[in-house]
Specification:
A seven-stranded antiparallel β-sheet has the order 20-19-17-18-16-15-21. The protein has a five-stranded antiparallel β-sheet with strand order 5-6-7-8-9, covered by helices on one side. The longest helix is centred in the C-terminal third of the chain and has 45 residues. By secondary structure, the protein is of the alpha+beta class. The two termini are 28 Å apart.
């Protein structure tokens, strides 16, 4: 996952196809380190986002509109003066650097044609957007860099713009076999690191892909390779460079469990076992990747308080359960006291006065038993004492049995809530989880003084369609599990759930028809994926007809009992199942 020189080359190719020759009609500096340009070309309006954010530098075409701030920053005003109304003559990438240069022609105050360059450097914390003139002199930048910040290169008005060559890397687009062999021979690291150390624009991820495609052990050094391996590596390397030169791009994202993991503009064959989504444009790939990850990150951040609350409650409930189970263990000797009492009632007449014990025949086991005695009490009084102990422990055990059941119910509910938090996709999901926690006393209910405040949006169960055309519903949380199983499903519909694990109820709407095996498999995959076992390679799934489900009296929402069921083994992979909502 890297916005490296190769990805930069891909976006440059796309921008040249769509923006070259176009006119810049609008410039907005929406954030302190972000520009938004509107460009009209061949009767089509394009919107280009350029971000020099230190943690996430990006550039891509988007449909999104950005509102201009009430007061435009100085750098934005400068760009409007020099670029707005100008025509884009060229979009270039020097070497395979993470730099894009826009050459713009415009008329100055005297009406003469001038050229300026707007450069975006996508270099992590060193990212910047810089405006230079025909003499390569910096006019200004979105981030000014004085000598006190960088001793290598100042980025200030009046300074000459240049690309610092601190690492003396080679341009991979110019590589031939002889030069490649020579460059790699100078590297003393493993072959992966050698690739991205010797050449510009090659990320560790790209280097790993090249080495994988060449079938080379990544821990080997260049001198450890056979001549065949060296040629194979150069063949893969040069093939990728040829793709860039001829614009043969394949924008794609590799996903794991539906979460984007890596993106590239070339095939990522080392992830052949994972789900891959391809795109028509590099911009669409970038927007999807970072948009999805940003959405997931945002939900993670918003759910942090819920995770902490549930985790704390789980710790408290588990400690409570440990104490209760220890107390229950101490009641296990209650039957011993009952037997002692019964033996004394039967054989107490034979106990001598002041005796410390009585040995007699236990008529339950036909074995001798020795009953300890309090020598200050009579046999009858000792019997009553033992019966009193028995009755006290019996009452304690009865109370603890109910308490332990309730504690286990709380634990199971909290574990299922934690799974629901992991599966949450939006604020509506989190809102329902908060409501459940408040309803059952695990969290305080939020009160609002604004009577006209809008009710929080309610999330709906996921809807999928099986390959055989059957609708499959998936509950996102305990309340939705209750709804899909007892309010939506009919008695003849099929119910699926991960065995002995928190997770979603999955309902297959049978419509009275016979369900093919493939739909069973897909419903099982959904139940596995939407459960706490989604990271396991295989998950055991229980399934039965909906009519076999029962709710326990006083049971928590989403918890059911059933005695008639079948089982199947499913992989938590839903990449091939059509999702409707």
């Amino acid at each position: 996952m890297a916005f490296d020189g190769i990805t930069t080359a891909g976006i440059v190719s796309e921008l040249n196809q769509k923006l070259k020759g176009g006119g810049i009609s609008r410039i907005v500096q929406s954030e302190k380190d972000e520009l938004f340009l509107t460009i009209k070309n061949r009767k089509v309006t394009y919107r280009l986002l350029m971000s020099a954010n230190a943690s996430l530098p990006l550039i891509y075409l988007t449909e999104e509109r950005k509102e201009a701030p009430l007061t435009a920053p100085n750098f934005c005003m400068l760009l409007r003066k020099h670029l707005q109304g100008g025509q884009i003559l060229a979009i270039e990438q020097p070497s395979l650097e993470r730099i894009i240069s826009f050459t713009v022609e415009h008329r100055d105050e005297l009406g003469d044609m001038r050229q300026k360059k707007l450069l975006i450097e996508l270099m992590g914390k060193y990212s910047n957007i810089i405006l230079v003139d025909e003499e390569n002199t910096i006019i200004d930048s979105i981030k000014r860099v004085p000598a006190s910040v960088s001793s290598i290169r100042e980025v200030l008005p009046g300074r000459t713009y240049f690309i610092p060559e601190t690492q003396k890397k080679l341009n991979p687009l110019d590589a031939d076999e002889t030069g490649f062999f020579a460059a790699m021979a100078e590297q003393k690291q493993d072959i992966v690191k050698a690739l991205y150390t010797a050449y510009t624009g090659i990320s560790p991820s790209a280097a790993e892909e090249f080495v994988y495609e060449a079938g080379i052990e990544p821990r080997k050094g260049w001198n450890d390779l056979t001549e065949t391996e060296k040629r194979d590596l150069f063949s893969v390397f040069s093939s990728c460079m040829r793709r860039l030169k001829t614009d043969e791009l394949l924008p794609n994202i590799v996903k794991k469990d539906g979460i984007p993991q890596e993106f590239a503009v070339y095939p990522q064959r080392r992830y052949a076992s994972s789900g891959t989504e391809t795109f028509d444009s590099v911009s669409e790939m970038i927007l999807t990747f970072y948009g999805t990850r940003e959405k997931l990150t945002r939900i993670r951040q918003k759910s942090a308080d819920l995770r902490h609350l549930v985790s704390t409650a789980l710790d408290r409930v588990n400690k409570k359960l440990i104490i209760q189970e220890k107390q229950m263990a101490s009641t296990e000797k209650k039957d011993k006291y009952r037997i002692y009492g019964e033996m004394l009632n039967t054989y107490g007449y034979s106990a001598e006065e002041g005796a410390k014990s009585l040995t007699c025949l236990n008529y339950y086991t036909n074995e001798e038993i020795t009953v300890p005695l309090d020598e200050t009490l009579s046999a009858s009084e000792n019997a009553q004492k033992y019966f009193a102990r028995y009755n006290k422990l019996k009452r304690t055990a009865e109370a603890l049995t109910s308490q332990i059941e309730e504690t286990i119910s709380d634990r199971d509910q909290l574990e299922s809530v934690m799974t629901a938090i992991d599966l949450a996709e939006n604020e509506a999901d989190l809102s329902e989880i908060r409501r459940e926690l408040a309803d059952f006393g695990f969290a305080q209910r939020k009160h609002t003084k604004d009577k006209g405040a809008k009710r929080e949006a309610k999330s709906l169960p996921y809807s999928y369609t099986s390959s055989d055309g059957f609708e499959m519903l998936v509950g996102r949380n305990n309340y939705q599990n209750e709804e899909v199983s007892f309010k939506i499903a009919n008695g003849g519909d099929l119910w699926f759930h991960a065995k002995k694990a928190p997770g979603s109820h999955v309902i297959v709407r049978t419509r009275g028809q016979e369900v093919p095996d493939r739909t069973y498999e897909e419903a099982g995959a959904l139940a596995a994926y939407y459960s706490s076992q989604r990271s396991a390679p295989k998950v055991e799934i229980d399934y039965t007809e909906r009519r076999n489900l029962r709710k326990k009296n006083g049971g928590k929402p989403g918890f059911v009992i059933y005695h008639t069921n079948y089982s199947l083994i499913a992989e938590p992979d839903i990449s091939g199942i059509q999702r409707n909502s």
